[in-house]
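Ops channel
N.P.: pipeline sanity check, posting one input/output pair.
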């Protein structure tokens, strides 16, 4: 409808371009993934198949969108770092978020059978997303450190919780016992009661996964 009388409706579209010369991070999170994990019988506290599937999806996003230079993932979330000098989609927040979320979700469905052979998807997975600008390399580094600390805290808590559940505690009671405890308490409990040295658990569980480009 170029040059039609209806062109005026485009004036209602808000331009949502992100700040120039800043690092853009698009973080996606699984929507209601506690339920998704239960319905699809994920292993607790970590299902290596699900984590590898998430990593495969992240690699696919980087292969498709070359302005993304780095990604970090843990649990049901992934953060994609777009170069500060990128002008991908005119840096429009809505465009960047919608493209990355939809691409990641499509890859999740497309690759599901390769990581969960013989187990059909019971319903469509979905992810939400947000875009945030970080002004300096230092702030970007701190953002990524924050997500990795989150990975450690959540994984240590969930490892304790599910070991207690598997030992006979109810989930609610295990949560009440662990609430407010520090890392030393959890490490000692895992070692003394379950024979687990937390620092020896796979790094993918404790620290998450990063995906990056190599110069060739």
């Amino acid at each position: 409808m170029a040059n039609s009388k209806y062109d005026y409706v485009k004036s209602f579209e808000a331009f949502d371009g992100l700040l120039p010369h800043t690092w853009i991070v698009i973080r996606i999170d699984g929507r209601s993934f506690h339920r998704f994990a239960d319905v699809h019988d994920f292993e607790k506290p970590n299902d290596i198949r699900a984590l590898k599937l998430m990593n495969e999806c992240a690699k696919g996003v980087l292969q498709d969108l070359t302005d993304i230079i780095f990604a970090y993932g843990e649990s049901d979330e992934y953060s994609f770092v777009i170069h500060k000098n990128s002008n991908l989609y005119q840096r429009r927040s809505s465009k960047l978020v919608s493209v990355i979320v939809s691409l990641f979700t499509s890859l999740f469905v497309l690759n599901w059978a390769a990581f969960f052979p013989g187990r059909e998807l019971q319903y469509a997975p979905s992810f939400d997303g947000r875009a945030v600008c970080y002004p300096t390399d230092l702030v970007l580094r701190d953002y990524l450190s924050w997500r990795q600390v989150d990975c450690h805290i959540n994984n240590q808590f969930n490892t304790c919780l599910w070991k207690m559940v598997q030992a006979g505690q109810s989930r609610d009671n295990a949560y009440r016992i662990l609430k407010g405890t520090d890392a030393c308490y959890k490490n000692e409990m895992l070692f003394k009661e379950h024979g687990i040295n937390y620092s020896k658990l796979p790094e993918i569980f404790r620290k998450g996964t990063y995906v990056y480009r190599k110069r060739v």
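N.P.: looks fine end to end. The chain has a mean pLDDT of 96.
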